[in-house]
Amino acid sequence: MVLAALIARSEPGDRCSIGDEDQAARRGMHGSPTILIDGIDPFAVPGQPASVSCRLYRDSDGRADGAPSVRQLRQAIRHPVTIREIADRDGAFVRVNLRSW
Questions:
Q1: pLDDT tens-digit profile of 50-98?
Q2: Residue 75 and residue 96: Cα distance in Å, rounded?
Q3: Which residue in 1, 37, 38, 71 is deepest, having the highest Cβ count within 10 Å?
Q4: CB 46 within 8 A of CB 97
Q5: Using CB atoms within 10 A of its CB, is residue 66 exposed (0-12), middle (13-18) or buried (19+)?
C-alpha cells in the first residue's frame, strides 16, 4: 500500500511470505521487511547474505528504524538500482548494485 501511494501505478505490488533461508536467497530477501523494486532490493548492502531475520533500515542521520522512510522509498523509486556483474581483482565475477543517478 505504501508503494502504491508513492508511485502512480495501477498495480499495488505483491506481498509474499518467506519460510526459510533458501527461499530468502531465491527471492532476494535480506531480512524482514524486504522491499523489492522491479525485483531488486534497493536497500541491500553489497555482500549481505539472504536472511529471514528482522531487518533495520538506517536514515541519513544513522538512526535505525524497522522500515525505510517515505523519503527513502521515493528516492529508491526515482533512482532505481540495477545489478551488474563485474570482475574483481582475481578475475571472479561479483554482483554489484549500481544506482542510476
A1: 899 999 998 888 999 999 988 888 888 887 776 655 555 666 555 555 5
A2: 19
A3: 37
A4: yes
A5: exposed
pLDDT for residue 100: 47
Separation of CA 59 from chain center = 15
CB neighbour list of residue 74: distance below 8 Å, 6 or more residues apart: 6
CB 86 within 8 A of CB 94: yes
The model carries a pTM of: 0.65
Cite the beta strand spans of 1-101 per DSSP E. 30-32, 51-54, 57-58, 64-65, 81-87, 93-99
Phi, psi of 78 (to 5 degrees): -70, -35
Place of cell 522509498: 73
pLDDT of 22 higher than 60? yes
Q: Using CB atoms within 10 A of its CB, is residue 37 exposed (0-12), middle (13-18) or buried (19+)?
A: middle
